[in-house]
Design a protein that fits this description.
It contains 13 helices and 16 strands. The protein has 387 residues and is of the alpha/beta class. The longest helix is centred in the last third of the chain and has 20 residues. The radius of gyration is 20 Å and the shape is globular.
Amino acid sequence: MKTITRRQFLATTTVTAGASLLGVPAIGTAQGKEIVMLGIWPFTGAFADVGPLLDRGMKLAIEEWNNKVIGRPIRYITRDDETKASSATRRMEEAIDSEGVKIVIGPWSSGMALACTEVAKRRKVFYYFSGGTEDIAGKRCHRYAFNWAASPYTAMHVVVDNYMKLNPTHKRWYMFVSDVAFGWSVEKYTRESSGFVSKAAAAKPDVLCLLNAGQDVIVSIREAHNFGLAPKVTLLNSWGVGTEDFMQLDAKTRENFWVGTNAYYGASTPVAKKMAEMYQAKYNAPPGYAPCAAYGMARLTLRAIEKANSAEPGDIIRALENWETQDWPGKVWVNPKTHQTVRDFFLLRCKKPDQMKHQFDFADIVAVSGDPRMPDTLNECKDIGQL
């Protein structure tokens, strides 16, 4: 079965980390007509490979609106967060000051997001993020910030509960937790990896649960195969990206690899199917979690602008709060008390090489659910605050 590398996956387009006008003529801000939307993405640094994918997703949503909303042109600009909190906050502030930005989507890393959310709160700009830290809609919540991803509480229940239903004898789990914001959020509810893998092998687990991200996931999987741990032992990335990681592994290495994720291109909702078709037609490859998340956040933001008939942060926020609608994940509800998007989470099981129908036929969706929801007693967002 032919595979495609991440480098090949990205080679179809070139992205510049600057202003992107999407074919819209420049319109002076003095006219007060254009709506400036900022995508703050990692074009350099540890997650540089993800930045172009996020950029693609946000562009696709804006293009779907023909580059305008409520009769006003959209000017989409980007800034490189460099996968550094200091760079992310500095460049977000710069865009607010120099470009008049009032709508910010991104970044990719939870650590960067925890820094950016404070800027949004202080500067009173609308802020949308998709990631695994529960703090955006938890103890660091405020009126200007929203989280598109499922809550870690829901995600871990979807993954663990459904995996155990399918594999009731797999009771011995070994967990590998990254010491990062989202790693500990998901562990709460449930690069060189040889040392950890050897310890895991000695423990003789039924499941090796990977609570890490990025290249750490790929390294962990390859080390598990090198040590002979996989595919006999299940490798389960309980909060993963799916497609982006699948692209880097050959079919044999993906065998018995399970992934919990917020997005997979095989999702059957009308919006997800349409988005996958548009993306594949444009880039000759399926969208992964990154472009789906950027697309989903941008799309809901544009719909909220239409609902409010305004692009002012306060109006967008009020339009989103307590909104129950259908979008990329299917049914979504924005909790007005926390600004958590209540939505489905996916559990994927990778296919064996002889089960794949084509090079992108990576996995089956074995479970989809938005339940259980985090009880109010466990959520640390006690006061969402005022505008």
